[in-house]
Design a protein that fits this description.
The complex is a heterodimer of chains A (about 350) and B (about 325). Chain A is of the alpha/beta class and about 350 residues long. Chain A is built from twelve helices and seven strands. In chain A, strands 1-2-3-7-6 form a five-stranded parallel beta sheet, sandwiched between helices. In chain A, β6, α9 and β7 (about 265-270) form a beta-alpha-beta unit. By secondary structure, chain B is α/β, with parallel strands linked by helices. In chain B, the strands form three sheets. Chain B has a seven-stranded mixed beta sheet, sandwiched between helices. In chain B, strands 9-11-10-13-14 form a five-stranded mixed beta sheet, with helices on both faces. A two-stranded antiparallel sheet of chain B has the order 1-8. The longest helix of chain B has 15 residues, at about 5-20. Chain B is globular, with a radius of gyration of 19 Å. Chain B starts with a strand and ends with a helix. The relative contact order of chain B is 0.12. Classes of the chains: A alpha/beta (about 350), B alpha/beta (about 325). The interface between A and B is large, with 37 and 34 residues. The complex binds thiamine diphosphate and magnesium ion. Thiamine diphosphate sits at the interface of chains A and B.
């Protein structure tokens, strides 16, 4: 078994490593190390809380048979989506995955419309006909979650190419998992992105498993250094602590700044863990029941809350209140979805062509 | 005889064929330790080891591609794709390579490969997880396309598919997997590929279906019979390609009417081919136009609208009556 215990911060690796300025001791004051304002730092925590509550509600709804099909939730990985998207502008693009609720929320998606979509309601993002894995919001640069593993890779690179051709400084971030690293298209688009110097960030969330397949068994790379692959394309790469929203933010920020400045593509690999199964209801036969315990101790939400308190950026009471607010927001989203009408069957064949 | 559901029947077919022939290999994502998304390959890795039950990386084009290479080199690979909607990275391999070796080499080489995958609606899942795209495989010369309707057929057809010297796409109706149990012989048996079966005799109309829709067809025929209205003959196609036109033509010549049911989109669905062939072979015996009951020309919608998308007994009955009263 490869070591799947949480490693804490790891070093930039593979290719030319990006300068993630000041990723030093946690004790340092957050405002100084990150250059973020206190309200921005607090916003990171609030977004993570909102995602957690959304996912907890999804799991409940799925178990109650109210969300149908398959639903993949994100508990444990919140620091990645939030850390990454906090470096982006509204006009920047992301492509997301089958585990995409968090990416959408972090990039500015509307939880009401998301919840309605998950419940198959006419007010949902896809008017209730796409579901959990197909949420998109063009107004926020969210080019879509994707039911096909690896499905977003070409799309992200195409969006980056168009930014370049249009002379815009927008960046595309392509989210994918460790399992998706083995899809052939990633090779094609990595090569093209490097050859054409495109403003894209290949953002791998390494949670050690693709369904039951462990990274160790299925991914050829020395010492779990997934980012090392980028060297083959002469693409700079960094590995960061996916349980630490600041580490993710800084690593991604360096990559995004490089892309925006004309410096071309990067790989960023975030080492993280999904607390729960692959999908709601996964019996988790392939993973040691206790393997999650050390990761739970590194839960990105309470840990970051603790750092804000330690830095005198927040009080415990405020943290509790923000958590309650996140719960409220999701309760309102659920109420909105429940009150929304079902889709009209007479529209079934519409929207196939313009 | 044990009563098995389709999951267990397929698992048993794989196990028995792997025991009989050491060249049979099962490969795919999560087929080993996890036993597959639908648990179809459960117990195989414990029995045959990781050399013969191979957990692959997440790479459909690779899975199909190297299964072709193994088949050419003497193995009998049975590849699993988790849902048929995920096969398309591997579709290139099927279309450009697997299906062509025999013809290209004028019969010298052959690719004895099976690609198994669940297909179709009724499980309330999202688009790629609910599609019925058999026509885009049936259109490929050199490929066999098999669609069992029940556990008994699944075991016999899969056994024949593994032994078949040519590449076979084996579509398993996801909604049938655990929905019914029936008597399935413990010993191995083959149901020949390319042979349809009349599952219910009748004189008034020929009702043609396959896979998950066969149950709908049978229920529609039963309802009309119990109401004393019409005696409908139901033909279970079992193998879309090669297609058994003799059985279908013989039935239509007898009844003079035909209705075809599939959940795939209508345009260029396999029903169109069947309808054309009936016209070519039996037009002077037809009393009414051939009708099709199909899915719509759109991607399958989410759960709430699925029932409108899928053909159901009411709709099939309605179309039968319309054809009878033409
Ligand atoms: C092309 C394709 N193959 C298989 C699947 C089924 N599937 C969905 S998610 C998944 C595992 C993905 O692993 P990873 O990329 O590591 O993402 P994670 O689930 O860990 O977030 C698989 C095999 C799919 N959706 N699409
Ligand atoms: Mg993973």
């Amino acid at each position: 078994m490869a070591d799947q215990r949480p490693q804490g911060k790891t070093n930039a690796a593979g290719g030319r490593s990006p300068k993630a300025g000041g990723r030093k001791a946690k004790a340092a004051k957050l405002v100084e190390t990150t250059g973020l304002r206190p309200d921005e730092l607090i916003g990171l925590l609030q977004r993570m809380m909102l995602i957690r509550e959304f996912e907890e509600e999804c799991a409940r709804l799925y178990r109650a048979g109210r969300i149908r099909g398959v639903t993949h939730t994100y508990q444990g990985q919140e620091a990645v989506a939030v850390g990454v998207c906090s470096t982006l502008n509204v006009s920047d693009f992301i492509t997301s995955t089958h585990r995409g609720h968090a990416h959408v929320i972090a990039k500015g998606g509307d939880v009401n419309l998301m919840m309605a979509e998950l419940l198959g309601k006419a007010t949902g993002y896809c008017k209730g006909r796409g579901g959990s894995m197909h949420i998109a919001d063009m107004s926020q640069g969210i080019l879509g979650a994707n039911g096909i593993v690896g499905g977003g890779m070409g799309i992200a690179v195409g969006a980056a190419l168009s930014s370049k051709m249009l002379g815009r400084d927008t960046v595309a971030v392509c989210f994918f998992g460790d399992g998706a690293m083995n899809q052939g298209i990633l090779h094609e688009v990595s090569n093209i992105a490097a050859c054409w110097n495109l403003p894209v960030v290949f953002l791998c969330e390494n949670n050690f498993y693709g369904m039951s397949a462990s990274v160790e068994d299925t991914l050829a790379c020395k010492e779990m250094n997934l980012a090392g692959r980028a060297a083959a394309y002469d693409i700079p790469a960094a590995t960061c602590d996916g349980m630490d929203v600041i580490d993710v933010h800084l690593a991604t920020r360096a990559a995004v700044e490089r892309a925006r400045g004309g410096g071309g593509p990067s790989y960023v690999v975030c080492t993280t863990y999904r607390f729960l199964g692959h999908h709601v209801g996964d019996p988790l036969t392939y993973r040691d029941k206790s393997a999650v315990d050390p990761w739970r101790l590194r839960d990105p939400i309470p840990n970051f809350a603790g750092r804000l308190v330690a830095d005198n950026l927040a009080t415990r009471e405020q943290v509790d209140r923000w958590e309650a607010e996140a719960k409220d927001a999701i309760a309102r989203a659920l109420a909105f979805a429940e009150e929304s009408p079902d889709p009209d069957p007479s529209n079934l064949t519409e929207d196939v062509f313009a | 005889m044990a009563r098995l559901n389709m999951v267990t029947a397929i698992d048993q077919a794989l196990l028995q064929e792997m025991e009989r022939d050491p060249k049979v290999i099962v490969l795919g994502e999560d087929v080993g330790r996890d036993g597959g998304v639908f648990r179809v390959t459960e117990g195989l890795v414990e029995r045959f080891g990781e050399e013969r039950v191979i957990d692959t990386p997440l790479a459909e084009s690779g899975i199909v591609g190297f299964a072709i290479g193994m088949a050419l080199a003497g193995y009998r690979p049975v590849a699993e794709v988790q849902f048929s909607g995920f096969v398309y990275p591997g579709y290139d391999q099927i279309l450009s390579h697997a299906a062509r070796y025999r013809t290209r080499s004028r019969g010298q080489w052959t690719v004895p490969l099976v690609v198994r995958m669940p297909y179709g609606g009724g499980i309330r899942a999202l688009e790629h997880h609910s599609e019925s795209m058999e026509a885009v495989f049936a259109h490929i010369p050199g490929l066999k396309v098999v669609m069992p309707a029940d556990p008994y057929e699944a075991k016999g057809l899969l056994t024949a598919a593994i032994r078949d010297p040519d590449p076979v796409i084996f579509f398993e109706p996801a909604r049938v997997y655990r929905a019914i149990k029936m008597e399935v012989p413990e010993e191995q048996y083959e149901i020949p590929l390319g042979v349809a079966r009349v599952v219910r005799e009748g004189k008034d109309l020929t009702l043609i279906g396959w896979g998950a829709q066969l149950r709908v067809c049978r229920e529609a025929a039963d309802r009309l019979a119990s109401e004393g209205r019409y005696e409908v003959e139901v033909v279970d196609i079992r193998t879309i390609s090669p297609f058994d036109f003799e059985t279908v033509t013989a039935s239509v010549v007898k009844t003079g009417r035909a209705v075809i049911v599939h959940e795939a989109p209508r345009t260029c669905g396999f029903g169109a081919e069947i309808s054309a062939q009936i016209m070519e072979r039996a037009i002077l015996r037809l009393e009414a136009p051939v009708r099709r009951v199909t899915g719509f020309d759109t991607i399958p919608p989410l759960a709430k609208l699925e029932d409108y998308f899928q053909p159901d007994v009411d709709l099939v009955v309605h179309e039968i009556i319309a054809t009878m009263e033409f």
